[in-house]
Amino acid sequence: MLNDSQQRYGLITRFFHWFVAVLVIQQFFKFADYINDGEHWLGDTFGPYHTSVGALIMLLTVARLLWTSKQQAHRPVTQGLLGKIARSSHRIMYVCLLVMPPLGALYIFGKGYPVKLFGMTLLEKPAAETAWMINLGELHGILAFVLVALVLAHFCGALYHHFIRRDDTLRRMV
Ligand code: HEM
Ligand code: HEM
Questions:
Q1: Residue ranges making up the domain that contains 22
Q2: pLDDT at 115 over 90
């Protein structure tokens, strides 16, 4: 029940998957800052939690990968080219979830602001802006687009398996 099997992902894998999925999707509301000069209720509502939730996603991803390393051998394997594409896209999503938070923090710090997580100051306000931090930190926004494209493809893949191939790929994760 807790562990994965060839037929079904166990409770812990499913908890990680759906909890992180919800957190990641709400991180995407940050795109709402592009609307109406940043004055949009979605950005205003979720924006203040962006850094803390991002850090939480990173911690959960580290724990999830440790769990995955123990479960990999029991997991269902999708054969063929589609399986290979799916596995590669899962890996790229994991990379995004691990590197986006530090890049976001670097961007904020490089811009001359303090980095605060869960109401605590992680990095004090720096004396000045730092160009290389801003340049590197801008990768955060690029990876955000990569991640959104992968999540959309991932979502469509799950629907394709369920409604067109009519296999149990989606069922074993719900
Ligand atoms: C995996 C976790 C995270 C995800 C999925 C995520 C996602 C996003 C998205 C979708 C955007 C909008 C992209 C854009 O403005 O072009 C964004 C912007 C931003 N994020 Fe994150 N984020 C995460 C973690 C963090 C963390 C931990 C921080 C800071 C400590 C952070 C700081 C920022 C900043 C400063 C922006 C605005 C950048 C700009 O205006 O160009 N993010 N993020
Ligand atoms: C939008 C709704 C989503 C649906 C319907 C969905 C569906 C699924 C399904 C059916 C699987 C199992 C695939 C298989 O057994 O081959 C899966 C696995 C996976 N999904 Fe999603 N997913 C969603 C969102 C997300 C999000 C937002 C992320 C992360 C950004 C994500 C990351 C993963 C990863 C990494 C796996 C591989 C298994 C694991 O390591 O836990 N998914 N997803």
A1: 11-173
A2: yes
Q: Is 1 a member of any domain?
A: no
Question: Is there a domain that residue 82 lies in?
Answer: yes
The pTM of this model reads: 0.95
In a domain, 124, yes or no: yes
Q: What is the pLDDT of residues 60-77, one digit of tens each?
A: 999 999 999 999 999 988
Looking at the structure of the chain, the number of domains it has is 1
- Kindly list the protein residues whose Cβ atom lies closer than 6 A to any atom of ligand 1: 24, 27-28, 30-31, 33, 50-51, 54-55, 57, 97, 100-101, 104-105, 107-108, 115, 140-141, 144, 147
Q: How far apart are CA 69 and CA 132, in angstroms?
A: 35
Phi, psi of 150, rounded to the nearest 5 degrees: -65, -40
Please count the other Cβ atoms lying within 10 Å of the Cβ belonging to residue 42.
15
CA 128, distance to chain mean position in Å, is 30
Residue nearest (by alpha carbon) to ligand 1 atom 42: 104
3-state secondary structure of 123: strand
Decide if 120 is inside a domain.
yes
How high is the pLDDT of residue 38? 85
CA pair distance 145, 116, nearest whole angstrom: 24
